[in-house]
Amino acid sequence: MGEQEEEILSEIMELMNGKKDPASVQDKDALSVKLKNLVALGAAIASQQEPEVINVCVENCLKSGATIQNVMAVLQKAILMAQMPVETYIKTVKDAILETNTMSGLVTEVDSHEFEKVVSEGITLVDFWAPWCGPCKMQGPVLDAVAKKIGGKAKIVKANVDKVSDAADKFGVRAIPTLVLFKDGQEMQRFIGMQSEGTLVNAIVSLSSF
């Protein structure tokens, strides 16, 4: 677990134990804020807080970018939270976000802990990139357009090579951007350098027809 994840976990545990007010959470990372608010909502429901407290948690979730589907996923899982380790609960919430983003046509960032599971099921296009890479930044908007066009046919995820070095080494990523198309965990096609929306959409549609 990375330093940032440890900090997030520590803060989440404080939220769940009632030692910190969810409204006091300050974090520039949108996903971290979303996770914290969703976990705070789950904690409020599991501990049977007053309806107004739960309503505030729901409002915080939506303000931080969570969707109604995210919130519903938390509602469904909250009743199990008392018997669920914190790490498992966080993973459940992150999985719900990934699933919702896929169905909504959104691109999601994955870390080294999630990589294998994300690519193991269905069709997944992984963009190996880095924030210091100019062409990678130019590829980003293209991926957003691809994700919206293909909808639920595939997951579109970004993997920062500085954070997923094990996966990058395993798949022989030597230059970025490198885009790898997986089906049920198996590499099916690879693209090196910037790619057009049409090229990527066609590759995904072609693979999904088999």
Descriptive report:
The protein is an alpha/beta fold. It folds into two domains: 3-103, no CATH class; 108-208, 3-Layer(aba) Sandwich (Glutaredoxin), CATH 3.40.30.10. Helices cover 54% and strands 13% of the residues. It is built from nine helices and five strands. It has helices at residues 3-16, 30-46, 51-63, 68-78, 86-103, 115-120, 134-150, 165-170, 197-208, and strands spanning 108-109, 123-129, 155-160, 178-183, 186-192. A five-stranded mixed beta sheet has the order 1-3-2-4-5. The model has no long low-confidence stretch (mean pLDDT 76).
Following the backbone from N to C, one meets helices and strands in this order, namely HHHHHEHEHEHEEH
Largest sheet: 5 strands, mixed
Count of DSSP strands: 5
- In percent, how much strand structure appears in the residues? 5-15%
Give the strand line-up of the largest sheet.
1-3-2-4-5
Cα shape: elongated
| Gyration radius, rounded | 18 Å
Terminus-to-terminus distance: 37 Å
The structural class is alpha/beta
The tally of domains stands at 2
**Overall average residue pLDDT:** 76
Number of helices: 9
Low-pLDDT sequence parts = none
Oligomer classification: single chain
Question: Helicity range of the residues?
Answer: 40-55%
How are the secondary structure elements laid out?
Blueprint (H helix, E strand, L loop, with lengths): L2 H14 L13 H17 L4 H13 L4 H11 L7 H18 L4 E2 L5 H6 L2 E7 L4 H17 L4 E6 L4 H6 L7 E6 L2 E7 L4 H12 L2
Parallel strand pairs: 1-3, 2-3
Antiparallel strand pairs: 2-4, 4-5
